Amino acid sequence: MAWCESQQTPVDFLFGLVRNQRLQKIVGQQMHEAKLLHAATGKAARVFTEFEYKTRKSWARSRRVVAKAEYLDKGENPRFVVTSLGSDKWAAREL
Fold this sequence. Notes:
Layout: H1 2-6, E1 14-17, H2 21-26, H3 28-41, E2 45-53, E3 63-72, E4 75-76, E5 79-83
Antiparallel strand pairs: 1-5, 2-3, 3-4, 3-5
């Protein structure tokens, strides 16, 4: 990410982000919504959100993180990506 951002012409990026307890806590409300949708429909349920996030040690600054709070028959399946792509052109669900 730092390399992409440091180029004379910055390079956009979209990388998968390993989930951790902090990220899971941030999307707790969306995960609850997905669980309720799954219970009501019996089908996979997905709720998307985004937020600014900074790691405690490895990132020098905050970046946009997009989350998919997904609930399946087997349970929770949250997914996260970190991106330089702006929300004005790229909605959370599209990413």
